[in-house]
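Subject: Interface between my chains keeps coming out wrong

I've been trying for a while to get a sensible model of this assembly. When I model each chain on its own everything looks fine, but I need the whole thing in one frame so I can look at the contacts. Pasting all components below, labels as-is. Any help appreciated, I'm running out of ideas.
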Amino acid sequence: MIAFLAKRLGITIVLLFTLSAIIFFLESIAPGDPVKAYLGANASRVDVLAERHRLGLDEPTIVQFGRFLAGLAHGDLGVSFRTHRAVTADFAVYLPATIELVVFAFVFAILLAGGFAFSAALRLPGSSVYRGILLVGSTAPPFLLAIFGIVLFYQQLDWLPASGRGPDDAGPTGFLVIDTLAHADLPGLASTFQHLLLPGLVLAIAPAIGIGRILRSSLESTLSADYVRTARSKGLSGGRVLVSHVLRNSIGPAISMSGLQLGFMFAGVVVVEQVFSWPGIGNYLANSIPVSDFPAIAAVTLVLGAIYIATNAVVDLLQAAADPRLVT
Amino acid sequence: MTRTTRPASPVTASPATASVRGLTVSLTRGGVTSEVLRGVDLEIAPAEIVGLVGESGSGKSVLALTLLGLLPESSAPRLSGSATVAGVDMIGGSAAELRRVRTTELGAIFQDPMTSLNPTMRIGAQITESTHSAAESVRLLSLVGIHDAAERMRAYPHELSGGLRQRVMAAIAVSGTPSLIIADEPTTALDVTVQAQVLDLLRELRDRMGCSVLIITHDLGVAGQVADRIAVMYAGRIVELGTADEVLRRPANPYTVGLLGARLSLGMHRGGLLTTLAPETASVEERLRGCAYHSRCQLATTDCATETPSLDPLESGPDGHLSACWRSPAKVGSLAASLPARAGVELPDLTSLVPIPAVKGPAVEVVDLTCVFRGKRARGRATAIHAVQGISLRVEHGEALSIVGESGSGKSTLLRVIAGLTPATSGTVAVGPDRPQMVFQDAGSSLTPWLTVGEILRERLLPLRIPRAEASRRVESILESMGLSASIAVVRPAELSGGQRQRVVLARATIIPPSVLLCDEPTSALDASLAASVLNLIRDLRERLGMTVLFVTHDLAVARLMGDRIAVMNRGRLVELGDADSIITRPQDPYTAALIAAVPELITDRRADS
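Reply #2:
Try treating it as a single job with all components included. I did that and got this:
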């Protein structure tokens, strides 16, 4: 297990290093001048040159890259050209909002997928209707789904809010679900969930069908496995057979798929945050790209990359835990 | 629904453990509904072992699943008649009632212990699910002969050998002291030495716990080793029933005689054709109108095609010996006496095939071959598995060599290295002059499912660059040589029977006759009669084409029939190599002797020896 973790960590470092090198290379050939964005369009040529020197942008790319790596080792991601604040300070504000949204959407996706897979594999009534709704939902692109959701649930029915996270964050974690609970602010908690519901559903529906399909097909093949027949021949109840014999043996492929989908969700969150004005890292990135706010772009890319790699490591661990044959 | 009240077992004082009366079962598979059981009567007395014998498709497993109340719902079973276990109706009973019977009265052992145990659950947990007490689970594991039972509780199924896994299945089956254990082909997936142990275990469990056992097998020899009574099934009906001794020594049904004749044994003649059952020629409707066996039966009269015989006691036999046949036991007896006689399969015409030109020197020469696999890392260490260790072999052109060993002996690896499918770690292999062709165990999975038989065969002809019409003609002719209809060329492998698939594999291997044919257990998944017909075909091909054959098998009887010489392998090493008959009659290595002793032989064979 330790060897496994060490190997994973090594791979992670190599991948992140490669990723940052690629970003640096792209930055060095990209058009647009971040200093102009930083000082405003009317800044004088002298000011621009002075500022460029101050930021170290007049040095060779390789030197800049070395300084960036050195800063990274100290947990310093630089200063955003756009917000004029440390990128880490911006992250403390925006990252929790994104993580909260994605985790909520992910749980949502798992529940939808589980419901779909079990109802289909056990041939429960209504499973085909449920499947149809999910399929239609997953074929629509997320922005369209988001707009449709806003028109229906906000404009027409006025059930759900269309933008933002709800209550102001009173700290300390930046996760509204945790913070409102910590302050025993139940109306705030309810409002938080209301705000999470629509963007969460939009983000969840495509991953739900992906995970659900995989889970259904492995459930169906496990249900006809010899050892399930053995379990039935012991006289176990249907529920017991399902939980202790069918589920664990079916979950492996669904775990891989979930990890993959979680990675995609962090990518897809950029669009959804734009539509719902969600004050998260996706919005932050979308605002940073047009002005070539390089430190911000690099930091977001690195953090998303790290999350993606960590997710995959967790998937491997979970699979090994579910199937002892993978360990020995 | 009609119920018959004929006594179907010897009269016993105590009530039967299980009783089946007029049982009819229809199953729907792939949209086609068929009657799989057609009026079965069977009683299993307390502490009795009944062997249920028949070829695949005879309905024996369906009978087992009916008694367990576990017929798959996906095949929409329709049942009539009755099947009771410990007095409980397993057809009409409520789900909760059936579950109670399965918990307290029934135990089940299935064919493949690897797939029948949950791979992600420790075996202790799997037994304790039934016993509800870890101490009881340990006791049962010891009872079924597992040493260090307490430590083994924490093992996963993949960490145990096949024999141990089947013992775990047996421990699960006996938990809750059932009154009936249903064992569906419990030894088919196991090595012969392990098979003998599992059969002994079943007998011992019966003796110690007083439970009844229904053992289902395709091998009359296996049934003869453990069963008190044998029921022979054909096409969904029991056609003969009697004590094991009676059925094996004085078979009263031509089908039983056919099965006995097709069985390969260590003592049979090596020359000539192996006896097979005649192929089925009647359509399904024709079969169901009369005796289902009539078109294959050497004794059939016109009556047999129109009237179904009932399972009745023999006129001049001991009590409890029943047979469903219009012909007299004396006639059937004379048929049995004429064994082994050929049962009427015309051998295919192989004249269209061109023999391989004779070449001097060895066809296969293996020198000091070693093959090592890297095992999966166990706690950080990579383990090396020595599948083949320092083997040297020389096979002359036109010779046939059988390679025998148990699973894990390295026999298949050796064959794969010779075929060039697995790289050797060290040593040399010379095969020649052309590339050898290989026939695999599972014909079903070695044929590409989305290609038609014709496409599969034509693919082999591609290097010859012959016109399409010429290729089709050769495909037709090779299919006919294999005893298959040329119309099969447009069919995909899934639509063929097991025997037909193995013939297609043989056709693929020999459409351009190779100088060396490698066979890896080509018949171990087939019924006795089909296996015999495939073996006949391979022997004939070899004789006519002058092919060199390397034949890998776990079955010594088959090895003796297929090889001029036999090589015995154990744990990657060659332990004995010599002339086929002398290996069987005078084994030099104790391992060979153990293998021979474990081969299940019929009572009648044993008699002939002593």
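Reply #3:
Confirming on my end. Residues 186-223 of chain A form the longest helix (38 residues).
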